[in-house]
Every structure is written in C-alpha cells, then in structure tokens.
Amino acid sequence: MGHKKLYLKTFGCQMNVYDSERISHVLAARNYRLVVNPSEADLIFLNTCSVREKPEQKVYSALGRYRAFKKKNSKLIIGVGGCLAQQEGEGFLKRFPHVDFVIGTKEFKRIDEILDDLEDSGKRSAATHLNGRVDPYASLPFSPSPSKVAAFVSIMQGCDNFCSYCIVPFVRGREVSRPSQEVLEEIRVLAAKGVKEVTLLGQNVNSYGKTKPGELDFAGMLKAVQEIAGIERIRFTTSHPKDLSRPLIEAFGRLPKLCEHIHLPVQSGSDRILKRMNRGYSGEEYLKKISRLRQSCPRIRITTDMIVGFPAEEEEDFRASLEMIEEIQFDDLFSFKYSDRPGTQATHFPEKVMEEVSQRRLTELQTLQRKITLKRNKAWEREKVEVLVEGRSKARAEDNMGRTRANHIVNFPGKPFAAGSLVTVKIQKAYAHSLRGESPQDSLPEDGNIVKRGKSVSRGKENL
Ligand code: SF4
User: Fold this and answer.
1) What's the CA-to-centroid distance between 105 and ligand 1, angstroms?
2) Which CATH code, of 3.40.190.10, 3.60.140.10, 3.40.50.12160, 1.20.120.160, is assigned to 4-127?
3) N or C: which end of the chain has fewer CB within 10 A?
C-alpha cells in the first residue's frame, strides 16, 4: 500500500514548529508522508496559534477554504491542533462540520486513538485535557530527518506566570519540564543527523527544572548541551526577565557554544503598566539585568517585545516605553498592539485604549526602533564574523545565506558553501533586517568541513 498524504500547516511560534515536527513523526508511523499541496492531501492538519486576534482569523479563513476540498473528497480528514484548538475545543467541531478532530496542546499521544476511531466509526472528537504537569512529549515517537542544519528542541511547556494579557497559561497549561536525559538524547540524535545548531524552546524557557526537584536547572541544561559533540551553536527562547539568574548571565561569558543573543521581552517601560501586566519586575530591575548581561558578554545582541495600548496606558506610560528603548538601545524589537484574549484578566480591565491611539503609538515606537536597529547593525560593518551557512539566499539565488552567532541573517557571494559550514565573512554593509558580507577570501574545502580559524573572528566573547 502506498503512502498516505499529509498536509501539515503550522501557525505561530517556534514551539508550534517543534510540535508539528513531533506530530509528523506520529503520523509518519501511520504511513503518512508530507505533501506541500493541500488539494492532494488525505489528511490536512492545522497546528494553530491564538496569542493574538490575527493568527486566529488566519486559521478560520484557511478552514473556510478547505471546505471545498472536503466536498470533492469525502474521505479527506481535517484535524486542528495547537493553542486555538485548545481554546475552542468542541466548539471547533460545532462551528466547522468539515473538521473531524481537535487535539489540544497536551494531547498529542491521543492522535492514534482518535484517528482509529475516525477510520473505524467516523467518530469526530476533541481531546483537550491540559493534564496538569504531564509531559506532552513523553513516549512519543522521535524519528527526525532534519532537512536543516538548525533545529528547535522543546525542553518545557506551559507557563505559571499568568501575565494579565496572555493566553498561554490557559492554552498550554502549567509549566512542565521534560526530563533532561530525554532532551539531551534527542539533541545527540539530531547532532548525529548533521544538525549543528539547536534552539531550546519554552514559553518560559529559563525557568526550566524549577518544578522538578533534582532536575538540572536551565544553566545546567545549557552546560550539558555544550558537551554534546557535533553541536556547534546553542540558542534558547523565550526568556522571562524575572528568571534571568546569575548563572545564566555568566553562561554567556563562559560557554563557547552559547550564541551571543538573547530575546528578553520587556513589554513596557512603565512600572504602572508592568504591574497591571503582572510581569513581576520593574523597569529598574530590567535595566539592571541588561547591564549585567552586557558586562558578562559585551557584544551580546539583545532583542525584546513591547506591547502598546495596554488597558489604561496613558501617554506618559507610553513615553516611559520610548525612554527605555532609547536607554537600552535594543538590537531589534517586536511590537504589538494589545488585543483582548479569551479568559485573560486584562480582558476585564475597563480602560481600553482607542484603536487609533494604539496605532499611532505603535507607529511612533517602530519608527524609533528602526533607526536604532540600523545603527546597531551598522556597528558590525568591516567586522569579520562567523557565519553558519544555511543554504542559498532567498533574495539572490547566487548568494550564500547563513546566520551569525548574534542571529543576524548574512547574505554573501562566492562559491556555494555546503549547509552546515562555518565560514568567516567580513561584513560589507548593514541593512535593517540583514547584513551583506564579502566573498570569504580563504574559502573552505569543498566538503564544507568546519574550520576553526585562529584569526580573531568576532564571536562577541572578546576575551575568548
Ligand atoms: S511569561 Fe510569557 S507565556 Fe507566560 S504568561 Fe507571561 S507572556 Fe505569557
């Protein structure tokens, strides 16, 4: 019997990318193979996001389009997973009669049973238990065939922080850290299959191990990944400032494979708004963490998230956010307008900010940050940086594309380097979202072997 065709579409964050990968392993064991065209599929699975209004609407419009496929092929199975599935549950089956099953963020293990029921009796079902602190990945098949040199690895799920605007604790449940031995074994398997860079994932990744006495803490996990042969680079996301411990800050100055980039969402520069957001730190405390990070690793690249238009945000609160951006000079920033999310505390806060005010603030903030980002990127011009080649550039097919340790995208000419090569590139020009490099003088041997150059290659750890 030939393979069955699976169309898997992922919305939202890197955690969903990882979950989709694990779901594809479960379905591969049921003889499904990925296809890129939904009209060919025997099974369409949407892994959804509900962190803001926009990604939610994208899912609904996609499901609207797939109704036609179901009309053409009544045997087509349509399933929905991820945060929006967790949020809506049975509601999805009522609202979309052409959806056959709904699987929540902690129920991956039930996919087989659900598909068996569907195939045997046509029974449509929704499985959305959040199961307390149960590891959703435990005993799931893991059969990666990485097509890229960089891979995501989820080390924990869920969040206990309950920031007043955030839906994550309601759709991802309580924090649960995966057993470190399982995570490390997974990374060894990936390294053996040619992966050079791993990004450790968690909604609140730097509180790893907190709810598991005797387990490694996050700095301990980083140190253990550092020991894995074949892995050249370590990244992690997303961190919470209140869990940025001293050992973690020092790890940036100590662990050679730990890349010099941290994404540390601040969300607002106003203490009044940070309090209403239930973020658990003040502007002053956040500033102190940033300066300690820069002491430990002077060229560390720092990116953040900011929300504008949070309920009761006054002009002076917004000004405080702009002042913080000016003071810290973030390397880049992702900014969003506040939107109500079902079940969150802030949804009930009365003083909503008018849409046009939020939009004006968002534009002003993005204009300020764009100038800072370009200035920060320009500081890398004429520098020699280590680039992990990922493949050909999307912009110009004749160029190589890769990333610096600080997570800049670099496009550079010259002979094609194999994905996974570590190349020294001199930065010629900086742009808002990428850097352009010169063709590497002493290019690597054809087989793309990794070469550690004795020359002073800027790795952000000046005293290396
Ligand atoms: S720490 Fe992050 S994931 Fe957790 S509730 Fe706050 S914003 Fe959401």
Assistant:
1) 16
2) 3.40.50.12160
3) N
